[in-house]
Model the fold of this input.
Amino acid sequence: MKPTDKDREIRSKINALSDIPEDIAWNVEEGWRKYRKKYKVSGKRKLLYWSTAAAAVLLLVMLLFVFPYNGKKKLKVSTQEEKTNITLQDGSRIWLNRNTNLTVNQKEDLIKINGEIYAELSGGSSYKIITPNGDFRAEYGHFNLYSRKKNKRAVITVVKGNVEAFWDIDKKLKTTVTEGTQAEVIPKVALVQAPIDDPNFLAWKTGQLRFNNTPLFSVIKKLEELNNIDIRIQNENIRYCRMNSVFQTLSTDSVLNKLPENLNLHVRKEGDTYLLSGKGCNN
Amino acid sequence: MENSLVSKLKKKDGRTQEYFYKTYAKAMFLLCYRYLNDEQEASEILNDGFHKVFTRIDKFQNGGITGLKAWTKKIMINECLQHLRKRKNIHFVEPTDLPSDDSNFMPDKNLNAMAYYNLISELPTDQRTVFNLYVIEGYAHNEIAQILDITENTSRSHLMRARKQLKEKIQKQEYYETNR
Done:
């Protein structure tokens, strides 16, 4: 019995298949998140990483002495547990999330960030935006930009206008991120653009979470990201229970305590970890 | 670029691992699901497979991206088969009533890739495993017999049964192509 023409046709079609069946909730991002959690992926050797971090801090301290604050040309803002916002000379506004460092050189239209911002650029200047994991250029646009050195990637989500994204602004390779799309920059590896897939990307600023037929594992991922906590699902049957709710809070306790009303779930806390269990759901 | 990718993987660079995972995870998930027909299990076996790729990358002989993808695919198939054995879902017994040798399907020009994929995923485990190994992966019966620790006759029997089941489903016109 040798393979037939029909066998070859089926093999060719199956190998060319690129879509996941509609009834499957798995996606690449979720898969990678689980992989990282299980196998604790790190990008650099710890010694090199901490050496680089220490050098960056030393350089920052030196710069503060060498280049004192100039109210007109240079603006430096750092947040820790609080959020804040600033207005630039041309009317552009920038909101800073917690644990964000931002420097604006208004003479050179240069913005440097390490953290997360939401910017509404007025179009008065063409800004060069330098981050630890990618560089950007924008003149008019509203966008969210996430780039923390420790996470080794930058994500820009454009709500209005266009933003150019580069691995390195001194090199030519770039992509233009347009309204309604997002781009992820993994330095020296990839620059990936896609439609916006997280409706709550601006939750840190609006204080609102909106879940529309959202599977529980996505809800959990968002809460972990916003609040830097650990939530574990103890019963795999509940991972795909769907949520339909709007919350005017980002508080993990508030969102999770509301869950049992909507779904057949139980929430308890062990130390700093939230544990979710339940029989499953009817939806 | 290819050699750079392989050499970075050999240095266990996390960013490159992430890039490799995100590039090939979808195709490998489709492969795992085709063998396991269970989303949870496919997701777990997929990650176990990638972990094996990343931790044993030093054993990969230089062959560029194409070779690396094929090597990854082999690892995923082995992981799926091991899991099926643990699940005790594979019981290969020589069937007593063999269907007639009918390798030909009815004309089914309207079936697209997703339709075939769903049909294959729904086969009973033993038939699905042999069908996947023979038709999709291109193994010969003697190779399948060695992989699954069965006889060549058993492998042929399960393939015939799989084809018969698929033919019956197609004849019932349960599947049709919606987009071409």
Observations:
- The radius of gyration of chain B is 18 Å.
